[in-house]
Amino acid sequence: MKKKISESKDFLRKIFENDFLSDLFVPVHKTGYPFIVIFFIVSLILGTISSFLGWLGFILTIWCVYFFRDPVRYTPSGDNYIISPADGKVLAILDTNLPKDFNEKKQMKKISIFMNVFNVHVNRIPVDGKIKSLNYIPGAFFNASLDKASEKNERMLVKMEFNGKDNLYFSQIAGLVARRIKCDLNIDQSVKVGEKFGIIRFGSRVDLYVPTDFDVEVLEGQTVIGGETKIASIKKQKSPKNI
After folding, report:
1. DSSP E strands: which ranges in the chain?
2. Cα dihedral sign, 211-216-221-223
3. Where are the alpha helices (DSSP H) in the chain?
4. What contacts 234, CB < 8 A, 6 or more positions away?
5. Rounded distance, CA 65 to CA 82, Å?
6. CA dihedral 49, 52, 58, 59 (to 10 degrees)
7. What is the pLDDT of residues 188-209, one digit of tens each?
8. What's the pLDDT tens digit per position in 79-104?
9. What is the pLDDT of residue 229?
10. pTM of the prediction?
11. Rounded Cα distance, 30 and 33, in Å
């Protein structure tokens, strides 16, 4: 009997040492708290009218908590890769000109990531660098999976410098359901790969623009994880040979 109790204690200790609780109770992003409280209060009100409506409100409250989850991410070490800025599905990979709102005529490789309402919506920095410009553009709310969303929808455009010379661009794009983009970045701010920089509420998209000579490491239709998936490998300049 004592042996069984001891084995049970060892089993429970291993579970908790392996972050069992942190896996079960995922942190919630701070921007979600007001919405969760509103959903909960509405559920209570609906519950006084009808038990069915109360349970429906409760389920929606649970979904709201789930939507704003902010799990811990483990960003790969090293400076050889561009890391995914968002969770979701890769819609398209193509060579194209930067959108006109960046005010630069430049050919880039565009990687579009679509986030549905069940994806984590916290956005993360794709590479170490410095923020060079921010430009908020008001717009429409077409389905974020459509190509026209890149230039028609409400969006936040970000330009950052990395490697001390190269530029990378990305845009947070609101979608059909998303109605608010939150970006916590500032111009001239130094940032680290994997850091959280914002969130888009309720279904959206992130377009990432990298230099055309970078090798893309993902495929169209692939599911990526923000802060973890390697999106592209950085093209390193060859050192001149000594003569």
Report:
1. 81-83, 88-97, 107-115, 122-124, 129-137, 155-162, 166-174, 181-183, 190-191, 196-200, 204-210, 215-216, 223-224, 230-233
2. negative
3. 2-17, 20-24, 33-49, 51-67, 149-152
4. 79, 80, 81, 82, 127, 163, 166, 214
5. 30
6. -150
7. 999 999 999 998 876 688 999 9
8. 789 999 999 999 989 999 998 888 88
9. 95
10. 0.79
11. 6
Query: Choosing from 112, 150, 171, 204, which is the catalytic residue?
Result: 204
Question: For the structural domain made of 81-233, what CATH number should be given?
Answer: 2.70.70
Which pair of structure tokens corresponds to residue 83? 């890391």
Domain ranges of the chain: 7-67, 81-233
**pLDDT digit string, tens, across residues 36-78:** 888 889 888 888 888 888 899 888 888 888 888 888 889 888 7
Active site residue 77: no
Tokens coding 117? 């309402």
End-to-end distance of the chain based on CA atoms, in angstroms? 78
DSSP state, residue 12: H
DSSP letter at 153? Answer: B
